[in-house]
Specification:
Elements: E1 2-13, E2 16-28, E3 33-37, H1 44-51, E4 59-64, E5 67-68, H2 74-84, E6 85-88, H3 100-110, H4 115-128, H5 144-157, E7 162-166, H6 174-189, E8 193-197, H7 201-204, E9 209-214, E10 217-222
Parallel strand pairs: 3-8, 3-9, 6-7, 7-8
Antiparallel strand pairs: 1-2, 1-4, 4-5, 9-10
Helix pairs in contact: 3-4, 3-5
Length: about 220
């Protein structure tokens, strides 16, 4: 599903290059559950953003479903992202002007899901995450943990082939966190490919293999 070779990411200031990622080679097969770990500043989130086509590499090759991502035009990138990828952000990225219901509905509108099916899926998701009572509230009326929960729900509602999760349980209590990880495990068993960035050893245990990053490099891999 994902094939990266020699991926670099750097920022230039005059003649200076500050590297965030260096010579990253990585393959992720369809149906895998992969964890990326490492200290702050190791390049984990940047790598995830490049995988999710939210950021471009400075160099190297990236193939997603056999398509060369750096050569794709904006429209094709948007289409790939919309059709295949669900993103769970550490900072929620909910739309402040929309209610919980409308935030959940948004990915389905992008995918042009018909009205009746949209309504059904949103209702099912509100039930599944036990947030029916919150459906008419706006993000600023929710706690951090509740916003994180909505962010996870929104990523899953469109049934993406690939879920990219950046600290998916970062703002949740341990019971909620475990629930989210069990849900992701179930989705993975049903065929969804998952890549998570986490500091949590416990969350890492849900994956099939763990990639350890250090200073922008892949340091080692554990299965």
């Amino acid at each position: 599903m994902i094939r990266m070779k020699g991926i670099e990411k750097y920022y230039e200031s005059g003649s200076m290059k500050t590297f965030v990622l260096r010579d990253v080679d990585l393959e992720i097969e369809e149906g895998e559950f992969v964890t990326i770990m490492g200290p702050s500043g190791a390049g984990k989130s940047t790598l995830l953003h490049i995988m999710g086509m939210l950021d471009s590499p400075s160099g190297g090759e990236y193939h997603f479903l056999d398509q060369s991502v750096p050569t794709l035009k904006e429209k094709a990138l948007t289409e790939l992202h919309k059709q295949y990828i669900g993103f769970v952000f550490q900072a929620y990225h909910l739309i402040d002007e929309l209610t919980v219901y409308e935030n959940l509905e948004m990915p389905l509108l992008y995918k042009k899901v018909k009205g009746s099916e949209r309504k059904g899926r949103v209702s099912d998701t509100l039930d599944r995450f036990q947030i029916v009572a919150k459906k008419d509230l706006f993000p600023h009326q929710l706690s951090g943990g509740q916003q994180q929960l909505i962010g996870v729900a929104r990523a899953l509602i469109a049934e993406p082939k690939l879920i990219l999760a950046d600290e998916p349980t970062g703002n949740l209590n341990s019971a909620q966190g475990e629930e989210i990880m069990e849900l992701m495990k179930k989705l993975n068993e049903e065929g969804t490919t998952i890549v998570q960035v986490t500091h949590s050893e416990r969350n890492a245990e849900y994956g099939m293999r763990t990639i350890h990053m250090l200073d922008g490099w892949i340091d080692r891999e554990e299965r």
